[in-house]
């Protein structure tokens, strides 16, 4: 089976492309899970990587779960405990791994992001959309629920009321409504989507990478920790940051009125 995920690195930026356009880049029924887990491990081990872009090949970002794979599950011939284990050992590994990725992740949503495809975008730190993008939390249309963490992710991105509306109706919203609901931070012409994502990635990569990684970890922990806990973590992370060569370089460059250099 050919690779599903295309891994491409240019300088400090990695672009991951979901690459099964003829099936609209489904997240199941292929090698997506092991390939993405391997890509995340590769990124974490490569300290030269400072930003990651994820996008889809063809006209769709991702159609989510492959509906044909659901036929055996709907037949009643597969036990409930087996289905539970398949979720835990399959698609549910993706939100855990992506949530804990320390490198900033930019979602460049080039087309429909449906079901688990929408939930994948919610795992991105920054989401930008092509004018051709659309979004749907469509599980209810198939008589199922968000099995990949969407019930936790989506309310934290757009708020409980709007997340409930999308989840209970299964309806599709376009790029402009996604912008209005703060599901994405900008909508750009389709032909400039990747260029726009790269522009953001370069702006991130220009900063001290250790500070960026620690700042992302604090943002993630802030989603479910108390203020005093985050403050305690912030003090510890700041102690580490103050002792890095990149911090010394940033302070020196500011005082000397020159451009800093943050090469490892």
Q: Can you walk through the features of this model?
A:
The protein has helices spanning 32-45, 71-74, 80-89, 93-99, 116-122, 150-158, 160-169, 175-180, 193-205, 209-221, 227-242, 245-256, and strands at 5-10, 13-18, 51-56, 105-109, 112-114, 126-130, 134-136, 172-174, 186-188. With 264 residues, the chain is an alpha/beta fold. It has 2 domains: 5-205, 2-enoyl-CoA Hydratase, Chain A, domain 1; 209-256, Lyase 2-enoyl-coa Hydratase, Chain  A, domain 2 (Orthogonal Bundle). The strands form 2 sheets. It has a 6-stranded mixed β-sheet, with helices on both faces. It has a 3-stranded mixed β-sheet with strand order 5-7-8. Strand 1 (5-10) and strand 2 form a beta hairpin. Helix 5 crosses helix 6 and helix 10 packs antiparallel against helix 11 (227-242). The longest helix has 16 residues, at 227-242. The mean pLDDT is 94.
Gist?
Helix 1 runs parallel beside helix 4 and helix 10 runs antiparallel to helix 11. This protein folds into two domains: 201 residues, 2-enoyl-CoA Hydratase, Chain A, domain 1 (Alpha-Beta Complex), CATH 3.90.226; 48 residues, Lyase 2-enoyl-coa Hydratase, Chain  A, domain 2. It is of the alpha/beta class and 264 residues long.
